[in-house]
Amino acid sequence: MLRAISLLLGATLLCGHGASARRVVSGQKVCFADVKHPCYKMAYFHELSSRVSFQEARLACESEGGVLLSLQDETEQKLIESMLQNLTKPGTGISDGDFWIGLWRNGDGQKSGACPDLYQWSDGSSSQFRNWYTDEPSCGSEKCVVMYHQPTANPGLGGPYLYQWNDDRCNMKHNYICKYEPEIHPTEPVDKPHLTNQPGDTHDNVVVTEAGIIPNLIYVIIPTIPLLLLILVAFGTCCFQMLHKRKARRNITKDSSPLSSECLAESLNSNLVHTVVSFIPYHVQNNSCSLN
User: In this protein, which residues make up the domain named C-type lectin (predicted)?
Assistant: First the structure.
């Protein structure tokens, strides 16, 4: 029950209109910060020639520590549908293309009654959950299972060819879905998915992650840093020039007043001495003449 609730919560997070925008990206491992919630990867190839057989898809998942997708119940099925809807929403350029899952048949099973019971999960899962399209499986030489994803195809007897299962020849070329053990990141907010890049991924991906409050603030602040620096430099330069001019005025005022007084005093003294000196000989001379 707890696992079903966890998976249902994941589907709500991916598709809820009230949640922050998230996109499942081809070739990206999508995880949830939940110890009971597996990680998944949708591998979609635009070029038909790049798509792979069942065995190639299985080996690709195992080479990255995962398995080809097994589905435990309807809740997990709905989660995968939500992720595929998010991956292939309008504007992504992704359209028709079925996905290998890890269900396959080991044996001939020509009898219609025995055939469905011979299908098993490649990871050893004992899940009995099935989501066959109408009149499937057809058995015969078709032993490996895909999840339909043909949104542009005309609906058949079972409705649109979307997310139901169909058995196909194992050497046919399709996309695939991998499943991994949960990855726990204690620093991640609980119940919020994160995207982890896979080394060596050759797909043309556009990574879009959740935008929280802090990232949004960063995106606003970073572009304004040059403007803030320019304002600070201009303000500092203006203050420096004002202080320099004020200091220069103070120095001129301080130095000019004593100098003017001193110069005036010296000038007055010099004139007085000159007058006295000039007067004395004249006075003495006049006295001398009067005596004679």
Answer: 35-179
